[in-house]
Structures are given as C-alpha cells and as structure tokens.
Design goal:
alpha/beta; two-stranded antiparallel sheet; 36% helix; globular
C-alpha cells in the first residue's frame, strides 16, 4: 500500500527509519501525490481513490529521468490493493498520456476492467495510442472537450527482427487491442479499424486524431465532462 512516509537515515548510523513529520492525523497524504500521483478523496459516499496516468507508460525498459512516466510495477499492485480495500468505494483515473509500452499498458487496462468497484476515467489533454485501452477500461468514461486521442496501428522504434513471425506477433497484438477497446466501449470494430488505418490526419503516419466530441460521437468514450462530472458519475455508481 502507498504510505505518506519517506525513508531517512538515522544520525550516526546506516539504518533507515520512517519520518512522518508533517503527516499528522489530519494532514493530507502529500507524499503519495508527490511520488505516484495518487491520493484518496473523502466524499459523502465514502473514500474515492484518485490515480493519475500521465506521460509515457513505462514497460520492461526504464526510461530516462527527464521523462514523465507511469510505471506499471507501481500501478498493478496498487490496483490490486484498491480492489481489496473495503474502505475505498470507487476509483477515479485522470489520464494525460502519450501512450508507451503496449504490453504494460494492456496489463494495466485489464486490471482496471476487471475491478468490481465503481471506476471512472477522465481524459485530459491526451489519451493517445495505448492510452486508449486505459481510457475505455473503467465502467464510465469521460473526456474533456479540448482533449485528444490518437488512434494508430502498433508501431515500434529501434531494431526489429524482420522475420514473418515478427509481423505475425504485431498483427495478433493489434487484434488484442482492437478486441479490448471494442469490448469496453461502444465503438464498432469496423469503425475503430477505419480510424486506425486512416491516411488523412497524420502527415508521416497512418491513424486518426480525434477530439472530445468526436470521441463521444464514434462511441469510443461515453460522454463529455470535467472533474465535477467524473465525481458525480462515481457518486451515482457508489449509491
């Protein structure tokens, strides 16, 4: 579980201890927000956990310190803990992500989709690439009018083994993403594939960039909204 503490070394020794200065009984959980973009909100229906998914989804390879990342090894156990915590009544996901590691993103999305508690996502800024399965995984999905989502086929940079098996793997992985998105939203497989393979919007690639109202119109996202709408949706589901 995330705790609002930090490890420091005791004077005159190497043993680490927990320092809870400034974290009194009534103090907000500052350290989880700083470290992991996570906080527990008190509402009239019960505790709501707010988790941000930002920057790039980091997979098996660690990214540079200058990059904003969401680490799947942090998020996966946190989601399991939230599902098991009887005090947490609902979970709010705030998304502004450029995408990232496909398998790591799908792993997080599958856990979110498998939660029994009320879950709501709010796309702010962007929910691109593998961020789309993350955006549609909760039970209720919202997007800000100014937010955008980029739908495109699986891509990779760097060295690739040019073998038939490699292309087969890419094709099967893409099928998994399409199935997940269409199963957890109202968009059809035909429409999602059409957006993915379009050559109109992106100058150097195939795919589509859609904005708030367009994402709702095609069935990818449930509705337009902001923070108050997301919290109201959670409140209704918790009731």
């Amino acid at each position: 579980m995330i705790r609002g503490t930090r490890a420091t070394k005791e004077t005159g020794g190497e043993k680490e201890r927990e320092d809870q200065k400034g974290q009194g009984m009534g103090a907000p959980p500052v350290q989880p927000v700083v470290d992991l973009g996570s906080a527990t909100l008190k509402t009239r229906r019960g505790d709501v956990h707010c988790l941000t998914i930002v920057g790039q989804i980091e997979g098996h390879m660690a990214l540079g310190q200058e990059a904003k990342t969401t680490k799947y090894e942090h998020v996966l156990p946190l989601l399991a803990a939230l599902e098991a915590d009887e005090h947490v009544r609902g979970v709010l996901f705030l998304l502004n992500t450029m995408g990232g590691d496909v398998e790591a993103g799908l792993a997080i999305a599958e856990l979110i989709a498998g939660m029994t508690k009320p879950t709501v996502s709010l796309v702010l800024g962007g929910g691109h690439s593998i961020g789309i399965p993350l955006a549609v995984a909760p039970k209720r999905t919202l997007i800000a009018p100014s937010a955008s989502m980029t739908v495109h086929p699986i891509r990779m940079s760097g060295t690739m083994i040019a073998a038939p098996q490699t292309y087969s793997y890419f094709s099967r992985l893409q099928e998994r993403i399409v199935r997940f998105v269409t199963r957890n939203s109202h968009i059809t497989e035909q429409k999602f594939t059409e957006l993915m393979m379009s050559a109109k919007d992106m100058a150097a690639d195939v795919g589509s960039v859609i904005y708030g109202e367009e994402a709702v119109a095609c069935g990818l996202i449930d509705g337009i909204g902001g923070l108050s709408d997301a919290l109201a949706a959670l409140d209704a589901m918790m009731e």
